[in-house]
Amino acid sequence: MDWIDFSEFENDSSKFTAELSKKGGYITFSNSGRGSEQKFFTLSLDSFLTCLKDIYKNHPSFVMHTQYIESEWRSLGSTYYTDEVARAQNGVQTKPMFVTLSKIIMWANSVNPNLINPEEKIILDKQSIQQAIIKLEALSDVFTPHLKVTKENTIIQNIAYSNKNLREFAKYVFAYFFDNNWTELLSTTTRKETSINSVNYYSHDFNIFNRLIGEFSSLQTKETLTSSSTIRYFEEPIYSNEGKYYYFSTQWNGEGDYSLTFSNLKKYFEKRFPNYLLEKKAEEYFLIKSSKELNTAPFIKDISQSGLVFSDTLINRFVASLLTKPFVLLTGLSGSGKTKIAQSFARWISNDKSQYKIIPVGSDWTNREPLLGYPNGLDTDEYILPDSGALRLIIEASKEENQRKPYFLILDEMNLSHVERYFADFLSVMESDEEIMLYSGKQRKSSDDIEVPNKISWPQNLFVIGTVNIDETTYMFSPKVLDRANTIEFRIDDNHIKNFLEQPSKIDLSVLDGKGASMAQPFLALSKDNRIEQDKIYTETFVKFFNELKEIGAEFGYRTAIEMLLLIKKLNTIGEFTKEQSMDIALMQKLLPKLHGSRSKISKVLDALISLCLEEGITFSIAKSDEIKPKEILYPITFEKLVRMYRNALDNGFTSYAEA
Questions:
Q1: Helix or strand or coil: residue 242?
Q2: Against a cut of 0.70, is the pTM above it?
Q3: Structural domains in the chain?
Q4: Integer Cα distance of 235 and 222 in angstroms
Q5: What tens digit of pLDDT does each residue of 519-571 get?
Q6: SS3 at position 106
Q7: CA-to-CA distance for 135 and 65, rounded, in angstroms?
């Protein structure tokens, strides 16, 4: 292997140094140290490789810039570098990046270091860049700059940046996430007039960060930015516009009662960018990028070892539904595994049992107290927590330190009572930033000294799963409930029961405990990704179903339309589904659950809906439904359900999605 020895391109007069890390596949390089102490930066071989590929791809834009001019190379990097880390680094350390790239190209092409000064010039002919890409790619393959993943291991981690100096780290983090767009940040700050060394200026408070940026009407020096022997802002402005110069604060502290602390930095950016971690290890600060890649293969494998039998498709539907909306209803045959799949996933992805709670719903639940408790009317200091443990779970899920853990509230036999009576507060706040008021007045505690807030919101890491059985003791769901959930029907056919009876096994869920805990972060990150997947075929298909459902007043609204597209996106993220399969699942889970009515009202609509599930030109008759060939059916899950509903309407004079 031809290793990079940067010292070949450096001498006593070199201002910028670089070194290949001994392990990890990174290059550590420095600035010139002019005007202050020398600073060091770390970037992966893969990031530099991406920069070279970007230069090669956009060669006409780069080729005329062989001489280093800071403004030009900063603009080129901002415009063409596709690696986020490299682009952010280039924005604040333009020349160190230029020099390191120049040395890499010289190394790859065996250029005599006496012929070119890499601190001033760079070789940009296409052949040389291509050679640099080939050699750096080979070198990069030797190293492992991030955790390799298999289908069994779901989380990838890349160290995007590290620095032992907190102020440098903080400046880099802001530049990275705002992509050096300081105008965007400044548009949301609060501006206050103040002074330093008799120089008047404006300090900008941003969110929880006080005095983050200083705005001056002229360029400043180290002396003018220093008070009480401490430099208050970085010497070089991060941004200038219309005669105003903006300087980033140096007043960062590891901890303490300040706004510019590492804990606040971590809190702010991890909440808004769930795919990233900010960590401090061994007196060094790290920005770590985690992938959102979520693979259900490990769960499918582990659940089979527990003795439970579920199809891969059903498991993917369940996980995708949780990712789409934190409220999922599981209905169908009693004893078909509805509670078990919910319990299994919660145990598998949780670190411990404090992250999930299975609560059997009582037939006497007529208000919210079984879930949320109530304030003690005789003691103004006490709040009575419900025995169910639901409010304890919600309080835990809401804590700042638990935001990277998923929590699961499993309501077993959810329709033993009217859901709207005990669950109304949850339905109301589920899609809004509103809060549930628990009590008014002074702070209250439970009998075991747990502080209970006077109001709670729906934590973004809380998922509610309700199981549903249909018999003479249960109640039907209203459209308000069904509209806010993904409803999955569990059915068992003769093949399922035959396979189970041929290899019966004792169920042992303990084998699942914590197995998928490393998936928690990508699971939560993906659940917050609300970008939808749009396609003309989705629009045309859903509009056809809309028009037929409108005939009986069962048409859907904007919420359902968005959630169907979002469900399709999540299905295709965690599994491999055709467009027809994805639409089939979306139709079954979001459109059909509200469908019900008498035979006279619904028969014609069922006929039309069933026809939409078939290939064009295929006619349908309920009397000959068994003659329809599988290849003629576009949406088999929806088709089968509609046929069953049609037969129920003929046999009983009435039909609905819910079946006993």
A1: coil
A2: no
A3: 6-145 (no CATH), 179-290 (no CATH), 297-527 (3.40.50.300), 536-656 (no CATH)
A4: 6
A5: 888 899 889 888 787 789 999 999 999 998 888 887 888 999 999 999 999 99
A6: helix
A7: 23
